[in-house]
Amino acid sequence: MYNASLLKNPESLDPQFADDPSSNTVISNLYSGLMSFDASGQPICRNALSYEVSDDQLLYTFHLREDNYWFFDYSDDDIIDDGEYFPVTADDYVFAFKRLLDPNMHSPYGKLFSCIENGTECLNGSRSVDSLGVAAADDFTLLIKLAYPCADFIRLLATNAAVPCNEQFFLSTKGRYGLDDDSVMSNGAFFVRQWFYDPYGKNNILYMRQNKVNSNDDHMIYPSYLSFTIERSEGDIAKLFKDGDIDCLTVTDSSAYSPKKYSLNGISGVTLGFVFNSQNKTCADPDFRRALAMCIDRSSVDVMLGSDVTTACGIIPPAVRHLGRSYRDLSDDNRLSVCDISGAESSIASAKRSLGVETFEPLKVMMCSGTVDSSYLRLVTQQWKDTLGIYIGIEEVASDEFSKRLKSGEYQIALYPLKGAYNSGISALEAAVSCEYIYISDSTASAVNELRRCGELSALVEMFSECEKQIVGEFTFVPIFYKNEYLITKKECADIIFDPFSQSVCFREAKYYDD
């Protein structure tokens, strides 16, 4: 049995709709799809035994496992009777994809799957979802036809959004699908036995049990139970962990956890960079932003950093996998460096002329407390002061205030965490293009949009690098750090999978070793 905690109540256990970390954790343990990500972030077959892709890269044929079952817990005993489970079929995937592309659904993932034939037309309402390019050739053969080649499609199928949905059960919930423990059923490693949440009370829990019908030699499920407490704050979760009441937690700062006592698994899935308030006259000046970017000598900063961060020149973080390796191993981001001290001095002189000033008023970088040690940031601001004569202070604020002030525009410069929705270079770059605090030119946005139309994985490496170069060269997002996020576990725990992109923790393969 594993004990863990969820930060706040899951908003929904509907995989085609939910996108908060607590929901993602439960969903990753409750459902499984055609593909999944392994511990290294590589897509692997899960409920697909195998698949083929046509020569034109438009038709995907998936051969499904016949031993993946839906299970719905409606009894009070521990016995699984024959009538309580039934196989997952191709029709369940067809219905799930139709839900994703249904404009009335308003799925946050719909646009990602618009590469499916007629997907865009379904989303904009010009065609019925019945025209979507998904079909069941038979109970265990699924056909998906794309509108254009998309090398990233297999990675998309490893996300929670692509898990199946049984139409009959969905309709039986009468609009409450995923909202309570009577309105979910499992085709994954565990099923929800009890979900209790009182926003005004304590002892809120979500209790799961092993879905025994889906545990077999190929996909062995080890834990018998999962017990989640639902907590209001990260501090509450940290106390439970240190008291020994839960087996693991995720944190952005591991300094409070000794590697002698705990196992620390750090994954660098976030790129921290400077964003600039376009309503501030100084920060809106392109020469001013260019000067700050060119002034940063990352080589002198890198040697002063701890193990939780490394300096960044690019957009895509090291946790993103491509062709079986970290993308950053395939494309060294040092070639994206814009460090040029003389260029910085020339740009700051141009900024002074265009703004009509001889000196700049002091500015501040707003950062979220706990993101990184503020002393790391001072290494950068000191370079700005020493080289350019610009004083820029650091203001640490709580997470809620950080988000509030970004939205209201109450900042000058902010250290912004950029992260893709899933483990993909495309998703990381799309996060930059879609961020409301980063101002990307139409030509750069078009280049990023074209990535989903690339059919060759190998070709994406150079395309990623070129898009990174364009974004960095516009100086509205200045990458500075790649940041680790951590799964901290007791020493006796092993094989718990943490996905830094969805923030989900999966216990499907978790093991517990006694001392």
Supply the key terms:
single chain; D-Maltodextrin-Binding Protein, domain 2; four-stranded mixed sheet; Dipeptide-binding Protein, domain 3; 515 residues; alpha+beta; 27% helix
Write up what this structure looks like.
This protein has helices at residues 21-30, 90-100, 119-123, 153-156, 167-172, 234-242, 286-295, 298-302, 327-330, 341-355, 374-388, 399-408, 425-434, 442-449, 457-473; strands at 2-7, 35-37, 43-45, 48-53, 59-64, 69-71, 85-87, 134-138, 141-145, 190-196, 205-210, 225-231, 248-251, 262-276, 309-311, 321-322, 325-326, 363-368, 392-397, 413-418, 477-490, 493-494, 497-499, 504-506, 511-512. The strands form 8 sheets. Strands 13, 14, 15, 18, 19, 20 and 21 form a 7-stranded mixed beta sheet that branches. The chain folds into 2 domains: 2-253 and 491-512, Periplasmic binding protein-like II (D-Maltodextrin-Binding Protein, domain 2); 267-485, Roll (Dipeptide-binding Protein, domain 3), CATH 3.10.105. Helices cover 27% and strands 25% of the residues.
